[in-house]
Structures are given as structure tokens and as C-alpha cells.
Amino acid sequence: MVQTIRIEAAAREQAGKGAARATRRAGHVPAVIYGAKQEATLISLDPRIVVKELQKGGWKSHLYEVVVDGQATRTLMRDVQFHPVTDMPLHVDFQRLAPGQKIRVMVPVNFLNEESAPGIKEGGTLNVVRREIEVLSDPDAVPEAFEIDVAEGTIGDTFRWSNVKDVFGTEAVLGRDFVVATLAPPTVEEEVVIVAPAPAAPVAPAKKGKK
């Protein structure tokens, strides 16, 4: 199961673009905690902490305990805005979690034993339709990843939600046995035959007329 990550933050008093720019000029990342039918809490974060979490990957399915003035709030990191040139984080949105609330999260999918699959050995390709699956989950039981074993996969096989080894009590938002991946046949390249143009027919000499 996913672990809870503790993040220290500072309170911000003012909202708006001007206040957010001032926060960034001071070397911090503006952020907000919203949800659970409570007023939004404006905070600022150390950019090094934000970058560290983003580099881990899977941050949308991690639980974050955001601590402001000694008070901890259980959250999910829902959205991050980035600078178009430097790719540094400009703003972070956290969703506050209410007790007993199920959450919608994207969980990545890992495919096991691809190299053992007969279809792969025959030159086939695993065509991944969904690299992440959106599910409803208890906040304390969000999986780090789902796993599908493709060791017995042959060309033409389809791997569905029902093929996930353990769903950890989650419920797929799509609500049906949807396709996650297929094992496609090898691509056959057609040989292009270049046909040389036929030689031009000789031109008969013109007959001389009688004088």
C-alpha cells in the first residue's frame, strides 16, 4: 500500500495572482488545500520538496500529510502547474480528505514477464492501451501499482481489468471489464518493387517526298 508522506508548509494570507507571484519571488511555491466542505487553506512550499516528490513519480496516488503551524491535514496532490520554459513548479493543488471518504486516483499498471510471453518471442508487441487506471479507493489503501502477468500471452491475446493480479479492494471508475493491453502480431513490412520504365520505341525516319 502507498505510504503517507509528511510535508512542512507555511501559511499564506493573501490569494490572487499578485500574491502568488510575490510568493515565488520569495523563493517558494504557492499552493492551496481545498475540499471536504471546508474553506481553502493557502500555503507555500519549499520548491526543493515539490521537485523531489515530482521526480519520484506516481505523486497523484500518494498520500500527503501537509503540516501548517503544527496542524496536519491528510491530502492528495491533485494538480501542479509548471513554468513553460524552466519546467519548474509554479503552483500546487492539494485535495483535503474527509474521514471515510473514498477517493478517485490514477494507479499505474506494471506488466510482468513480457520476455517470457510466447507472443513476444514470436515477434509480437505488447500494445498498452492504458498505462494508468482510474479507481475508487480508500485513502489508506491506495495501491502503488497494479500488476498484470503476461507470461502466457500469445499473439492476439487481450488483457483486461479482470487480469489484474490484485485490485486491493479498489473499484474501477469505468465499471466494466475494459481492455488494458493487447498482444499485437509483428508488423510485416511490404517489399517495394521498383519497376524500371520500358525503353522508348525507336522513331522511324521520315520519308523524303518526291520533288
* Sheet/helix structural class: mainly beta
Q: How do the SSEs run, as a string of H and E?
A: EHEEHEEEEHEEEEEE
What is the terminal separation in angstroms? 108 Å
CATH architecture of the largest domain: Beta Barrel
Contiguous low-pLDDT stretches (5 residues minimum) are none
Provide the domain count: 2
Shape annotation: flat
Side-by-side strand order of the widest sheet: 1-3-2-6-5-4
Number of helices: 3
**Strand tally:** 13
CATH class of the largest domain: Mainly Beta
Which features would summarize this protein structure in a list?
Ribosomal_bL25_long; 2 domains; 211 residues; RNA Polymerase Alpha Subunit, Chain A, domain 2; rRNA-binding; Ribosomal Protein L25, Chain P; six-stranded mixed β-barrel; four-stranded mixed sheet; 40% strand; structural constituent of ribosome
